[in-house]
Each structure stands twice: as C-alpha cells, then as structure tokens.
Write a structure and sequence with these properties.
The chain is of the alpha/beta class. It folds into three domains: 4-141, Rossmann fold (3-Layer(aba) Sandwich); 149-209, Arc Repressor Mutant, subunit A (Orthogonal Bundle); 239-336, no CATH class. The chain contains 17 helices and five strands. It has helices at residues 17-28, 42-52, 68-78, 93-102, 113-125, 133-141, 149-159, 164-171, 175-189, 194-204, 211-215, 225-230, 239-263, 267-285, 289-306, 312-327, 334-339; strands at residues 8-13, 33-39, 56-59, 84-88, 106-109. The protein has a five-stranded parallel β-sheet, sandwiched between helices. The radius of gyration is 26 Å and the shape is flat. The chain starts with 7 loop residues before the first strand and ends in a 10-residue tail after the last helix.
Length: 349
C-alpha cells in the first residue's frame, strides 16, 4: 500500500473545468499520485501553490487575468524548486522558449495528455525535463535570435493593421525607428514582407490573436462604434461564409414560418413568426444585422419555451441568429456598405 508521504501531490491550473475534471480522474486513478488543488487562473494558482506546496504543477498558458507564463515566473521567484509542467495547445517555439525561461520543467500538448501526462509527471518529479519531439524540432528549425519586447510590440501593431506612422504614434517613437524595427523583424524571422512576418509570428506563437481581436481585425486601430458593430468581415473569407449563414437563416425562417402560419389560425401563434419573418428579410439584405439576429434569437427561444415537440429548428435558428448578432453581417450586406470598410490590408509603409 502506498503511503501518503510517497504520493506525488499535484496542482492543476486551467480555466476549463472539464479539462480539470479529466486530469483529476486520470491522476487520482494512480496509486502514487494525488490531486491536492485546482485553480482557474494565474492569481489563484499562486495562492493555491502557497497553501498546498505541490510536488508538481500542471499549468495552462492562456487564462483570464494573469496568464500561465507570468504565474510560472512569480511562483519560481518565490519557490525556486517548484516543478511546473506547461499543459497547453500552443506549439509555437516562441511560447516554449518563454515558458522554459520562466522556469517550466516540461512542455506538454493537451492532445498528448492521455498518452504522456502520467509519465511526464513522474519524470519531472524525479528531476528530469521533458519536451515533445515535435516541439524540439520547432526549436531546432528556428535558431535565429529572439525578437526584443519592442520588436514584438511593433509586430503586434503591424498585425492589427497599423502603418509605420501609426505605430510610431502609439509607441511614442520616431518613424525611422519603426522602419529599423521592421527591418530587424523581417531579418530575424526570415520573412519576405510584413504580411509574411505576421504569419510567421502567429505560427510560432510570438504574437497572438485572441478571438475578440480577430473579430475587430478589419477595422482595428480606428473606426466608429457603428463600424465595429456592423462591418465585421465585410468582404472575402470569412465574410462570404457569414453571407451564406445569413441566407441560410433567412431562408429557413421563411420556410419554417410559412409552414406554421398555414397550420394555425391563432393570433398568438402567428405573431412570433411574423416578427421572425421581418428579421429574416433584414438578415437577407444584411441590414441592422445585430438587431435582426438578436430578434431571431429571442423569438425562436420564445417559440421553444412556449410549445412542446419539434424544437430542433427553432433552437438552430436561435443559435444562428445569436451568432450573426455577435459577428456581424459579412459580405454583400447593406450594413457593410453603409458603415463598414470594404477590405482589410496590412499596410506596407
């Protein structure tokens, strides 16, 4: 029988409860391991580490508030012997280097958890370091010098669509300095131009575009509230994809509404389908898309709650409407014509 003194005591840090539960089940099934605490962000991780002093900590990188790398640095500054395993979806070599410099002992991809987590925990507890072979290959393939913090700031602003003058204004430096930083970035990344540098930066994890950054990308750096609300992805992909979603939603609304109007003569049952029909017309032409999408979501959810049976289509329509309300009209829309920009380019100068 394994004694408590010989158990590997583990702290898991991740903002996804289901992943934490999965890890708990995996770890607690082992006779030599025990999950002693869980945390959902960096600040909580530091507090739980101080309270429980785990033998091994499993740390996610991207979390709300204090991120994983900052949490690792702060834990290591206070507890230099802390054994921390990064558990993440990010494969970029820049993320790996940051994590290892912060003090992580191992780097494991979440898709490898079921195969390699337990072995990695035991190895790190024994004083070893672990990096998956595919990530090690990435490190070997990119031996060039790291970008400086200022160069990363410049690259991030380029990715957000800023020209050199805008970058200079935002960083309070001269335009000539920006050009020098851009030249260094292209050289260090082996990029042919600014757009190529952004692509490499995203792939290697040097810069990141969270979902909310992607949604405002076409008008980043300027534009009114109306532009941000109505003109998401006006042209090209994924704008065409959103156009197809608008047409699908409007067509389904019309067909579904007409079918139910034929089957009922009660005014109370007719009204929601009339509202949905009006919203469908607005979505079809891309006018007041956030308002129309919200109207569809509310009406269809009301239909779901007010009757039993055959709820699949209303639930689907409510989901599509809510999605359009959040992401905008897409291509070939009146909203984009009235309020939005027609395209997004990474400026060359």
């Amino acid at each position: 029988m394994t004694t408590d003194l010989s158990l590997i005591r583990i702290l898991t840090v991740d903002d996804h409860p289901l992943l934490r539960k999965g890890i708990a089940a995996l770890v607690n099934a082992e006779t030599d391991m025990k999950l002693v605490a869980e945390a959902c962000n960096g600040e909580e991780a530091i507090a739980k580490f101080r309270s429980h002093r785990p033998d091994v900590t499993l740390m996610d990188l991207q979390m709300p508030g204090l991120n994983g790398i900052e949490a690792i640095s702060r834990i290591q500054s206070e507890f230099p012997n802390a054994r921390i395993i990064v558990l993440t979806t990010y494969t970029g070599d820049a993320q790996v280097v940051r994590a290892l410099k912060a003090g992580a002992r191992a780097y494991l991809l979440k898709r490898q958890v079921h195969r390699e987590l337990l072995e990695t925990i035991r190895a790190v507890h024994a004083g070893q370091r672990r990096i998956p072979s595919e990530i090690a290959a990435e490190l070997v393939d990119h031996p060039r010098g790291d970008l400086t913090p200022r160069e990363i700031d410049v690259l991030r602003l380029i990715a957000n669509g800023n020209a050199n003058k805008q970058i200079a204004d935002q960083l309070s430096i001269g335009e000539a300095s920006v050009k020098s930083y851009v030249a260094n970035i292209l050289s260090k990344l082996g990029a042919s131009d600014r757009a190529h540098a952004v692509t490499i930066g995203l792939k290697r994890g040097i810069i990141e575009w969270p979902f909310w950054e992607m949604l405002r990308m076409p008008y980043a750096g300027s534009g009114s509230f109306l532009q941000r609300l109505f003109s998401t992805f006006p042209n090209g992909w994924p704008g065409i994809g959103i156009l197809l979603q608008r047409v699908l939603t409007a067509t389904t609304l019309f067909c579904y509404g007409i079918a139910h109007l034929r089957d009922t003569s009660q005014f109370a049952s007719i009204v929601p389908h009339m509202f949905a029909g009006v919203a469908g017309i607005l979505l079809l032409v891309g006018l007041w898309t956030p308002i129309a999408g919200t109207m569809v979501a509310i009406v269809e959810l009301w239909i779901v709650c007010s009757r039993a049976g055959g709820q699949g289509i209303p639930i689907m329509l409510a989901t599509l409407g809510a999605t359009l309300a959040m992401i905008g009209p897409g291509a070939w829309s009146v909203d984009a014509h009235l309020f939005g920009r027609k395209h997004f380019e990474i400026p060359q100068r």
